[in-house]
UniProtKB/TrEMBL annotation:
The keyword Transmembrane helix applies. Residues 6-135, 145-279 form the EamA domain. The lineage of its organism: Bacteria, Pseudomonadati, Pseudomonadota, Gammaproteobacteria, Alteromonadales. This is EamA family transporter. It comes from the Bacteria.
Length: 285
């Protein structure tokens, strides 16, 4: 794969991630759809779309792709991501999510033999400090539970990403993971339905957003992401995703009228500058 193609595919993946954050936040804030229904529709619609996509291609690996471990990580990511965004602004949530991704995947890269030099280590600590700044107590500090859920979401997404680096068929692997995660999402919805007597209102515009998230920004977006992962190291895969919070923060301010506070600006600068240090100053063996 050429360098230009890697950059293009990576950029498309990041756009899908940013769109997922905005769609989820918008649906939960502007429509009446509940979190469990959004999760179920997102995962199940993604699974059905990917199954149909492979069936039309006559791919015999429809039910063989993916693993239960990756599917469970995808489920945990979807649950914590959605419930987290019910409590936190889009830009702040994305910052916490992908900051956690960087920390988790950098640690994973270290365990796999990837080493950071002194300057890269400073960058890593700086990015971590950005998350701490964001979470310091204060008037503009985000909801603790929302922030906690977004961090859990980041760890789960890191595991899902690491599981996909060796995928021989990105489409089959993504489809298999979604198909395996669909019963989990459905079970969660049934539990919530039985405990709250809640139903899905098909006339609710939130259903459209859930389907858009499941089919386009998740189903197609994750295929694109898995296709470029073999070209990226764990550390690189973590760091390139840190551009997503900026996209989400700016779009959130424009589309959702969310406030860009000084705290978010300082945290973003710390995380992005730390990212630049890690990417620019490569370790020499």
């Amino acid at each position: 794969m050429t360098r230009l193609r890697i950059i293009l595919i990576t950029f498309l993946s990041l756009l899908a991630f940013a769109a997922n954050s905005l769609i989820t936040r918008f649906a939960l804030e502007k429509t009446t759809i509940d979190e469990a229904s959004f999760i179920m529709l997102r995962v199940v619609s993604g699974a059905l779309f990917l199954w149909l996509f492979l069936a039309l291609k006559k791919d015999k690996k429809i039910l063989q792709g993916g693993t239960w471990f990756a599917a469970f990580a995808l489920f945990i990511y979807a649950v914590s991501f959605t419930y987290g965004y019910g409590l936190i602004a889009a830009g702040t949530g994305a910052l916490l999510l992908f900051g956690s991704v960087q920390i988790t995947m950098t640690i994973a890269g270290y365990r796999e033999g990837e080493r950071l030099n002194v300057i890269q280590l400073v960058g890593f600590v700086l990015a971590l400090a950005g998350l701490v700044i964001l979470m310091l107590p204060g008037i503009s500090a985000p909801s603790f539970m929302g922030a906690f859920l977004m961090c859990i979401s980041g760890v789960a997404w890191s595991i899902y990403t690491l599981q996909g680096r060796g995928a021989s068929s990105p489409a089959a692997t993504t489809a298999g993971n979604f198909i395996k995660a669909a019963p989990m999402a459905t079970l969660l919805w049934l539990i919530v339905y039985l405990s709250t007597n809640n139903t899905i209102d098909l006339a609710n515009i939130g259903v459209i957003y859930a389907l858009l998230s499941g089919i386009v920004t998740s189903g197609i977006g994750y295929i694109i992401w898995y296709s470029v992962l073999p070209e990226l190291k764990a550390t690189q895969a973590a760091i390139v995703q840190l551009s997503v919070p900026l996209l989400v923060t700016l779009a959130g301010a424009l589309l959702l009228n969310e406030t860009i506070t000084l705290r978010i600006i300082i945290a973003s600068i710390a995380i992005l500058f730390g990212t630049i240090l890690v990417l620019t100053f490569k370790h020499k063996h």
